[in-house]
Design brief:
- The complex is a heterotrimer of chains A (111), B (243) and C (496).
- Chain A is mainly α.
- Chain A has one domain: Helix Hairpins, CATH 1.10.287.
- Chain A is elongated and about 60 Å long.
- With 243 residues, chain B is mainly alpha-helical.
- Chain B has one domain.
- Chain B contains 9 helices and no strands.
- Chain B is globular and about 60 Å long.
- Chain C has 496 residues and is an all-alpha fold.
- Chain C contains 20 helices and 2 strands.
- Chain C has a two-stranded antiparallel ribbon.
- The two termini of chain C are 21 Å apart.
- Classes of the chains: A mainly alpha (111), B mainly alpha (243), C mainly alpha (496).
- Chains in contact: A-B, A-C, B-C.
- Chains B and C meet through helix 1, helix 2, helix 4 and helix 8 of B and helix 1, helix 4, helix 5, helix 6 and helix 8 of C.
């Protein structure tokens, strides 16, 4: 169960990384960033899981899972969302100037 | 597809695959003993007594590691401030018309319940899953719903941008103020029960010391901030349709 | 005085600015100045605490293994001094150029200052990540604050690469948490020694790659020239002078704490990145015609020098790297501010075009020449001293290759700085020999920024001479010793 979570996280991370490196459309770059962020959060949450565990809300009806990864994930989700909102804002403003979202054409600064 | 593009894509794919294998080996080398150890074990057993909150994740977020939460809400504050700087709104448009009469009356019935739901998430953050971030997002989504149903003129009359800026700053200053209270009293920045906040009985609404205040502060910040982001970015589409 | 005030004071100033904006449409300059002074005072107090009596501050009253600890020691203190000087200088230049009008710019500015102090003081790995994200988002926004399309493009490139770096860093932190369950940087060196070798490789790769993306080391430096050249002058000065040093601090602290005793390959990688940055940065700068882009590539090369110093993994090497970081801040901020003034007067940023104009002031050129000589490495200025120390210690610790790269880099940088200075001198000569009609650009005003750049020029000379003085050398060596002293750090944080 844990290995399924970890493996899918690794696959999603590499997919996101490949999307950023190899795709030309800026929106796909943002999707790639979002995928990478989601996979890292999946790794964090899976690391705290205990098979057969209950949510960490007192009083517990069994073995509680690790609450620290949940706190980290909540923090990291907000931070990732802010980054992606900012990326989309930049893309909207760049689109106004260049008229396109293709990274090969948005190369005004070169050298 | 020319050769250079294909080769570069192949190189990227090989790089990603090898990195993925490296990650996988790193995970496989660890032996997972399914026990909670270290600081987390202390949190699980002692958090209701030391912080007064039943939701241990809230206790970690707003008491043990409250400085992280201050930093995280500052990230949102910075991003909102920046997006508002990138899209300056010199005039507020009233151009959208909203949806039909039936939808508007219907949403009028549902709106109080949505707001009550948001308030419940925020105020019971220390008792059940929820808290300031989640409730604040519901509040921001409520303002987005209002824009879709009633048009963007709704926002300019009821919640103009300066009010949202004020709410966001108020939330941020409340968070920092609660922290400074602990510093002035002498028990440390962002301290909870040791600074004298009333503990109450664990499991009731008025408990957990300063955690409900911090939840409200974060909800104000997040709600006002996300709403500002939405209204800053959509007005561009309205500009093009209007001109 | 509590260390947390160094973080909270700029944070409060930033939160209060929107409230002040509702009262005054344009913020009064003295109000922003007072807030800047308050933040400067808090940061300097924390830096003094760190230098004289290193201390730890427990947040929320929780013991170190449960809560977050802020710690100031001899490694953080010079970086705090550096960043507060940089922030103060940039704030003064911004106030002079823009007045109190752009209030969101100042809010983001104070948030940046707060986050830099947070990074320098924290002793918790996830807290480092959170404050690094505030720092990065504020930096992306300051780059884009001039609203030109170049600034937007540079900001987007910086954002994509910076967020990738942040996600790699978070992945490394996740692996550390998976392997040990601890995130306190003082408890981790011991905990990491029992982690299996493959996991340690993954952790070191992710952390170093993430921090390298954020620092702008050579293979992944693509955002740095665009960002530093497209931003406005005070922002470029702050970026090159102070922001990259904070990233270098984070890299140094993490490598020394986690990998000094656990895996020596990390420092070799840092040295290689340093050598590549030196050669790559200088070679690319040689080809530039735009003066700000040339200075930005020069920053890439100077980061390479600092990384070579850090890669020595010894107290002396790290001390030399810190000395070069301080010198580079003085030199590069001076260069950016002076060249910003020059470009504004002349109206162009192209070096070839500057040669054909006649509007450059002799005073500006003189100060620019001092900084250029310092950064190339002419004795007895400070640039020569710090480069000499880095070469010396890298030969003993890492071999001959970095020293050869440093020597080659010095020759190439001499070539391109000579080109810039000769263009400027050519413009001054044209102004003095003819064109009587251009005297409307004449009035040599004594502005605050020129006072500051003059002071920096004098400090360059003084720092260079001071490096020959043994008590100064031993205090710098104590910085390096603090960096490699893992048990001392643990003792300071855990309070034993």
């Amino acid at each position: 169960m844990l290995m399924l979570g970890y493996s899918s996280a690794v696959v999603i991370f590499c997919t996101g990384l490949y999307t950023i490196m190899a795709r030309r459309n800026l929106f796909k770059t943002v999707i790639g960033l979002s995928l990478m962020e989601a996979s890292v959060l999946l790794v964090i949450v899976t690391s705290g899981f205990i098979p057969g565990g209950v949510p960490p809300i007192a009083p517990f009806r069994g073995v509680a899972v690790n609450p620290l990864p949940h706190a980290f994930t909540l923090t990291a989700i907000v931070i990732g969302a802010s980054d992606i909102a900012l990326a989309l804002a930049f893309i909207v403003k760049l689109n106004k100037h260049y008229g396109t979202a293709d990274i090969d054409k948005i190369r005004g600064l070169r050298g | 597809m020319n050769i250079r593009l294909a080769l570069s894509r192949l190189a990227s794919m090989i790089l990603c695959l090898s990195f993925g294998m490296l990650l996988f080996q790193g995970i496989a080398a660890l032996d997972m003993d399914n026990r909670v150890t270290g600081a987390a074990a202390h949190y699980l057993s002692n958090a209701p007594a030391e912080t007064g909150a039943n939701n241990i994740v809230s206790a970690i977020l707003f008491d043990y590691r409250a400085f992280d939460t201050l930093g995280e809400s500052t990230v949102i504050f910075t991003a909102v401030c920046g997006i508002a700087m990138l899209f300056p709104r010199k005039q507020i448009l009233h151009s959208a018309r909203g949806l039909s009469f039936i939808t508007r009356r219907g949403i009028g019935f549902v709106a109080p319940f949505i707001l009550m739901y948001a308030a419940a998430i925020i105020l019971t953050g220390h008792l059940s899953p929820g808290g300031g971030f989640q409730g604040g997002t519901v509040l921001a989504t409520f303002t987005v719903l209002m824009c879709v149903v009633y048009g963007s003129g709704f926002e300019s009359t009821h919640l103009p941008p300066w009010k949202k800026d004020l709410l966001e700053s108020a939330g941020a200053l409340l968070f920092a103020g609660v922290g400074l209270f602990g510093l002035i009293v002498g028990t440390g920045f962002l301290s909870n029960l040791s600074a004298g906040f009333p503990s109450g009985a664990p499991g009731t609404l008025f408990s957990a010391g300063s955690i409900p205040f911090l939840n409200i502060a974060v909800a104000l910040k997040v709600g006002a901030g996300l709403s500002t982001i939405f209204y800053c970015m959509i007005n561009i589409v309205e500009d093009r349709r209007g001109s | 005085m509590s260390l947390v005030l160094a973080v909270v004071t700029p944070l409060l100033c930033a939160f209060l600015i929107p409230v002040f904006h509702l009262v005054w449409k344009t913020l009064p300059v003295c109000l922003v100045g007072v807030m800047g002074l308050a933040s400067l005072a808090a940061s300097l107090a924390a830096a003094c605490t760190g230098w004289v009596s290193p201390a730890a501050s427990l947040l929320g009253g929780w013991p170190p293994d449960l809560g977050i600890v802020l710690v100031a020691d001899r490694l953080a203190a010079p970086f705090m001094l550096l960043t507060s000087m940089g922030v103060a200088t940039s704030l003064v230049c911004s106030l002079e150029k823009y007045g109190g009008g752009p209030w969101r710019y100042y809010a983001i500015f104070f948030l940046l200052a707060a986050s830099m102090n947070g990074i320098l003081l924290t002793a918790d790995l996830f807290n480092l990540f959170v404050f690094y994200e505030i720092f990065s988002v504020a930096a992306y926004l300051l780059v884009a604050s001039s609203m030109s399309w170049q600034a937007m493009e540079a900001g987007l490139k910086y954002l994509v690469l910076g967020t990738m770096g942040a996600l790699f860093f978070l992945l490394g932190t996740a692996f550390i948490f998976m392997a040990t369950g601890i995130l306190n940087m003082a408890l981790l060196p011991e905990a990491l020694s029992v982690v299996p070798r493959e996991t340690l490789t993954v952790i070191s790769t992710c952390l170093v790659l993430g921090l390298a993306l954020k620092t702008g080391a050579f293979p992944v430096h693509f955002w740095l020239p665009d960002a530093h050249s497209s931003a406005q002058t005070p922002v470029s000065a702050l970026l090159s002078g102070a922001l990259v040093k904070v990233s270098v601090y984070a890299l140094t602290r993490i490598s020394c704490l986690f990998f000094l005793s656990n895996g020596g390959g990390v420092f070799r990688v840092i040295t290689i990145m340093g050598v590549l940055s030196i050669l790559g940065g200088h070679l690319m700068a040689f080809r530039q015609d735009d003066i700000k882009r040339l200075l930005a590539f020069s920053t890439v090369a100077q980061i390479g020098y600092i990384l070579v110093g850090v890669g020595c993994a010894s107290a002396a090497g790290i001390a030399a790297a810190v000395f070069h970081a301080i010198n580079h801040m003085l030199m590069k901020m001076g260069l950016f501010i002076t060249s910003g003034d020059i470009c504004e007067r002349v109206g162009t940023r192209s070096i070839r075009a500057i040669k054909d104009t006649a509007g450059v002031l002799p005073a500006n050129v003189a100060i620019f020449t001092v900084f250029a000589l310092a950064i190339v490495g002419v004795p007895p200025l400070n640039g020569f001293m710090s480069k000499w120390f880095i070469m010396l210690f890298s030969v003993t610790d890492t071999g001959l290759c970095p020293a050869l790269a440093i020597a080659a880099g010095t020759i190439i940088s001499a070539a391109y700085y000579y080109g810039v200075v000769s263009a400027l001198v050519g413009s001054v000569v044209r102004r003095n020999t003819g064109s009587p009609g251009n005297n409307d650009l004449d009035s040599p005003t004594v502005s605050a920024s020129s006072v500051i750049t003059g002071t920096f020029a004098v400090l360059c000379l003084l720092a260079g001479l001071a490096a020959l003085w043994p008590p100064m050398q031993s205090s710098f060596l104590s910085i390096g010793e603090t960096a490699v002293d893992i048990e001392g750090y643990a003792r300071l944080v855990l309070g034993k």
